[in-house]
UniProtKB/TrEMBL annotation:
It comes from Acacia crassicarpa (northern wattle). Residues 327-366 have a biased composition (Basic and acidic residues). The keyword Repeat does not apply. One of its GO terms (molecular function) is ubiquitin binding. This is UBX domain-containing protein.
């Protein structure tokens, strides 16, 4: 369960208040219920946010621009206690401290905080996981409730579907989930997060999407090396991200990296239309300069996994040793049971084989009797062999084993008569065969059985051979 110190730290991070005593009093007044205290605090200061927002934006933009121009790595400070009351939820997106990556990277043009939306997203998820989420009875008290995960995922899926309908499927693989989930996905994959904020009404958007964002070379590189997230500024999460990243010109792209304590580092931002070559050069440079950090993180994770795997292997070996004796005893019993089953099975098989032999012998005798009867019936159906004459056809039939048989038929008899004659001889062990003439080659198959010998061109004499069908 979350203790008082953790709740106090969460409350300070979200509200921007630095005085721990004041934060403790506020939490105690609301029974140490984080969501109720945050909701009450932000609702009470929403009017102040509207009056102070213009001046605060100007002040913060000047600070960030100065930091970028001199290449410093300074973090934005929280509002001092002597200033007016802290602004509302929307403004704290910029007032929270931010993480900046410097030194070997040399990439950061400025630092951008996820603000209350990012911290609140993780906080809401964390409270839900530990069972501190407020019930339905508190719905009326949470007028400034954070964006649910399901709503963020729904917006992301809607954006991807709309983008595909307008620009096709050759595109960065935007994940269909909220920004925080996409950020966590990039962190788990040890990749940078490519962010695209879509402004549907901007005149440069269609051309940028078609020629640059959906360029095959750019898409292939981004999909291989980045996790991509996109959002429309018409939607809630896309609009909040445009405020957090201070997008002032569209099309807007950024490359960010997950940092500690619910912060992100802005490695590169691209505002305005760019060619595919320019975009590819930028993201390649960012990836190359970020490689040491990503590789170090991956190696550290692999080392942890190796240690976990080693412990698991040791535990598995220990369990295997404990189970070895039981396995041997079980094997001995199973071997005894197997021998008994095999003896019974052998006896059963012997009886079945004996029955099968008897059954096969009966079936063979019945088949031979049936064949003999069939041959006799077909021989009888042919009638007596006619004497030579003008209406008599002389037929020579050669078998595959070289044997030859010759017989005379009336010319008006059918091709079926020739098959009946071959069957009546009993020279073949197969039933599927065809009668074929050589020159010219003609197969007298099923479609010609009803033709007379004269109609089939076999009169007055013919030489056929038996061809076994495969």
């Amino acid at each position: 369960m979350v203790d008082a110190a953790d709740k106090l730290a969460y409350f300070q991070a979200i509200t921007g208040l630095e005085d721990p005593d004041l934060c403790t009093e506020i939490l105690a007044a609301h029974g140490w219920d984080l969501e109720v205290a945050i909701s009450s605090f932000t609702s009470g200061n929403s009017s102040t946010a509207r009056h102070d927002s213009s001046a605060a934006v100007s002040h913060d933009d000047d600070d960030i621009g100065a930091s970028s121009s001199v290449g410093r790595v300074d973090s934005l400070q929280s509002v001092p206690q002597s200033e007016p009351a802290p602004p509302g939820l929307a403004w704290k997106l910029i007032k929270l401290p931010v993480s900046v990556i410097s030194g070997s990277l040399g990439l950061i043009s400025g630092a951008v905080g996820l603000g209350l939306w990012a911290a609140g997203g993780v906080l809401s998820y964390s409270l839900g996981m530990i069972g501190l989420g407020s019930g339905s009875s508190r719905n009326d008290q949470s007028s400034a409730r954070l964006l649910p995960v399901s709503a963020a995922a729904s917006e992301a899926m809607d954006f991807v579907a709309r983008f595909e309908r307008e620009y096709g499927t050759t595109r960065p693989n935007f994940v269909s989930e909220g920004f925080m989930d996409a950020l966590q996905r990039s962190r788990n994959a040890f990749k940078l997060l490519f962010v695209y904020l879509h402004s549907p009404d901007h005149p440069d958007t269609p051309l940028f999407c078609e020629r640059t964002l959906c360029s095959e070379v750019f898409v292939a590189f981004v999909n291989e090396n980045f996790v991509s997230w996109g959002g429309s500024i018409r939607n809630s999460e896309g609009f909040k991200m445009s405020n957090s990243l201070k997008a002032s010109r569209f099309p807007f792209c950024a490359v960010v990296m997950a940092a500690t304590n619910q912060r992100i580092a802005l490695l590169q931002q691209v505002e305005g239309p760019k060619s595919p070559e320019e975009m590819l050069t930028m993201v390649q440079r960012v990836l190359e300069e970020s490689a040491p950090v990503l590789i170090a993180g991956r190696l550290e994770a692999e080392e942890r996994q190796n240690n976990i795997r080693l412990r698991e292997e040791q535990d598995a070996a220990y369990r295997a040793a404990l189970e070895a004796d039981q396995a041997r005893e079980r094997q001995r019993r199973e071997e005894q049971e197997r021998l008994e089953r095999e003896a019974a099975e052998a006896e059963r098989l012997r009886k079945e084989e004996e029955e099968a032999r008897e059954r096969a012998a009966r079936e063979a005798a019945e088949k031979q009797a049936a064949l003999a009867k069939m041959r006799q019936e077909k021989a009888q159906s042919l009638g007596e062999e006619p004497e030579k004459g003008p209406n008599v056809t002389q037929v020579l039939i050669r078998f595959p084993n070289g044997e030859r048989k010759e017989r005379r038929f009336h010319s008006n008899m059918t091709i079926q008569s020739l098959y009946d004659y071959v069957d009546s001889l009993g020279c073949l062990e197969v039933e599927d065969y065809s009668l074929v003439s050589n020159f010219p080659r003609v197969v007298y198959g099923q479609e010609k059985l009803t033709l007379s010998l004269e109609e089939a061109g076999l009169h007055p004499q013919a030489s056929l051979f038996v061809e076994v069908n495969s």
